[in-house]
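Regression test attached.
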Amino acid sequence: MLHNYNSMSSHFTDLFRLTADFLMCYCASTMALISFHLDPNSGVSYYVQLMQQVRQALLFGLLKAGDQLPTVKEVVAQVALNPNTVLRAYRDLEHEGLVLSRPGLGTFVASSVPPAVAQSSYRLLRTELERWIRKAHEAGLDDDTLAALVAHVLHARTDEVVA
Amino acid sequence: MIWVTWRQHRLEALWALVLAALLGGSVGYVALQISFASGRCPSTVGFGYCLSSDPFGQIAQAILRFNLAQYGLVVLPALAGAFIGAPLVAREIENGTQHLAWTQGVTRMRWLLVKLALVFIPLIAAAALVGYLEVVFLNLQGPQVNRWDIFDQQAPVVAAATFFALALGVAFGAVIRRSIPAMAATLLAFVVVRVGIAELVRSHYVAPLVKTTHDLNAVGSQADPTAWWLGFPNYYDSAGHLLGNLIGPSVGQPSYVVQSFQPGDRFWAFETIESAILCTLALLILGFVVYWVTRRAT
Amino acid sequence: MIAPIEATGLGKRFGRTWALDDCSIRVPAGKIAGLVGPNGAGKTTFLHLAAGLLRPTAGEITVFGRSPHGQLLLLLDRVGFVAQDTPLYSGFSVGDMLRFGRELNRRWDQADVEERLRSLDIPFDKRVGQLSGGQRSQVALTLALGKHPELLLLDEPVARLDPLARREFMRRLTEAVAEEGITVLLSSHVMADLERVCDYLIIIAAGRVQVAGEIEALLASHHLIVGPRLNANARLSGAELVKAQHTERQSSLWIRGSVPELGAGWREEPLPLEELVITYLSAPRAVTLPRPQLEEAAS
């Protein structure tokens, strides 16, 4: 009797596992493609952080043309953020031409998005950066000053562009 | 709202049911025993009833000796008012749950009225039932029974007193907003009002009759147990001078005696009048409670 | 467009103290508004007035254009309220609390409510008194959302919760707002939550409204400038001085408006939201909010 019960229960656990796997696969197809992570201490407002993370996802090929961005509800359920903030980020991304919002359907990556940065160029840039950092260290700059210099130049570039 | 009231007060309902069943049961049981023994009573002076000496009858005798039902019926309204009436609103406010209850989809008026109706009506009905059993019990004791001694415990007054006590309790609870002080205030106020009515007001509902007789034994409960003899008999000598009353000194030879009384046939009228007074007070208090809770309480 | 909450010259007195004095606020629809202020500033009083639990002593407050104290059923149906310390009936089971909500509200979504609590692993037969703080607050929130209100009022809903429970609560709250476009007014001390979740801010101190506005606009319009010590007759043009602090060598000015021409030695320092709030709370007489509503109402 005991033997029969054990073999029966192992059948049940197998069945359960199969069902669970099936459901997970099914759900995965309706899960958000990327997730967001917010840093309250970065000094950068949340909607800008969201935009940056979408841009990075595009850059590294995690999001391709036609992919759907996580819905406002999905984002908010994950990171406890004001829905209007998410809407604003998506709207600004739309103004930049990176995404397209289709009412009732969601927000999708625009087909006109430039392709992701090629792995080769990415590797090249990284090697050049490492070389530059080595030179800066030899010149006596510490990491914080390095980062401030980069930020300053970037900032100055943006001002030029605006002007 | 009906389910909510039941769910909140079901424990109290259980207690009330048990107590009412105990009281009603004991009165009913004694009445039953009396009616069983009534055919076989020896003719006696004074008592109009007897009880058999078998175990059932002995239980009834024990119940009678300890008089618990009689005390219980006087106390029952006060307990209801204090333990059920006072916390009705006070506990809600004490625990802060009025912030929950009063922001749902029912107005405060409806919340209060349904609660009052569902809590009051069964309790008053139970009191009336037990009071009715008391009346039956007294009826079985024969035509010479003194009902006036058991004025508070009979059906109309005990039900009206329960209504009054409950209303008083809810009012104190709503104003004081803390259960325990409201319970204490209810008990105190109830006792003061009931004793006040009984001692000061009751005898005046209808102008009492006065019996003047030369037969010095023709006044008092011994002479006529169905009447309510007020105060003490006053003895006068043949010249019309007041000699004193039962307790005071008696100088000279009493010739005739004078005492006020309410005749027995007025008993039910008196019960009705007192019930009406208590019910009116209760309704006035409830009107105040409704005003207070819907307009002023926080 | 009828504002979910509009207060004009609102005042409430208890005994001889004015808990709220001359408050004029309008909470716009679809926003999550945060109510900030020291303890005893009048936040709870304001929320109770909006929920219809109190009646104003002076001025008026309307919710969707009607007076909440009148106990209109159509308002009671549209406004959800969770009081401080999340009052629930501790002798009830969770299922009993849901039944309570269903019995007392006309429009009640039992399936939605059950689904929410199930996904939080809160058992229906557990007594409310035995729930953890986080679970209680979730039950209270679920109860308030069960009637699909249009306005949700929350009085320090996460005050005593651990960080995870707080985050869970906020997730549920923002999710409900994303789904249904509810307007929310919540009072809180936790600035981090307010920054994430709110887009409108009301600062109350000592019964008076100091600031009310969209958080973005507030951050854009307030600046902190630091420079060498100013003398007493220095004037600020084009901007309003909220607070000034001086040391022997240095002056710090918190201003509202556009940043004036900065002379030598002057720089602008970042002013995050928490610092902005603290600036106002530490300068209780600084009031940025004019009384336009009162004038509008009079005209």
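Expected vs. actual: identical. Helices of chain A lie at 2-30, 46-59, 72-79, 83-95, 119-138, 143-162.
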